[in-house]
Design brief:
The protein has three helices and eight strands. The chain is α+β, with helices and mostly antiparallel strands.
Length: 146
């Protein structure tokens, strides 16, 4: 349901705002929009999102490699955002470190009960994307009055 036209070609680009917000979530180490890193393996022809006139006169996309964002602006296609999470490093297994005195030491975290943050990350990601889209809606309304 994301309408076409939100975002900007520079500064407040929808994809850059999404990436920034997603990277601010704890444990996130990567963000993909659309085909993301896989797009780097494709040719320009294979990565294109071709269009044709739709039945209602609006453009109809034949692919969505860009994940609903082209040139920093929403296309009206489904928004596709994926994140990569690092594994929890504070685990019960001892890990080599350096103590306050600078000497080699081992550390073992106690009391940590979430060896996978992925379960919690999904609703946090959805909320963060919703915040970015709400902000983009307000920016769009301020710029075009709609």
């Amino acid at each position: 349901g994301l309408p076409a036209g939100w975002g900007a070609p520079l500064y407040a680009k929808l994809d850059s705002e999404l990436a920034s917000a997603c990277m601010s979530i704890n444990a996130v180490k990567g963000v993909e929009i659309g085909d993301g890193f896989e797009a780097a393996r494709l040719t320009g022809e294979s990565n294109a999102d071709p269009m044709r006139p739709g039945a209602d006169g609006r453009p109809e996309f034949l692919a969505n490699h860009a994940g609903g964002v082209a040139g920093g602006i929403s296309t009206g296609q489904p928004l596709i955002v994926r994140i990569a999470l690092k594994p929890t490093s504070s685990i019960l297994t001892p890990v080599e470190t350096i103590g306050r005195d600078g000497a080699a030491a081992d550390i073992r975290t106690k009391g940590r009960h979430d060896p996978c943050v992925g379960i919690r990350a999904a609703p946090v990601l959805e909320a963060m994307v919703a915040l970015v889209l709400a902000d983009q809606k307000l920016l769009h309304r301020a710029q075009v009055g709609a």
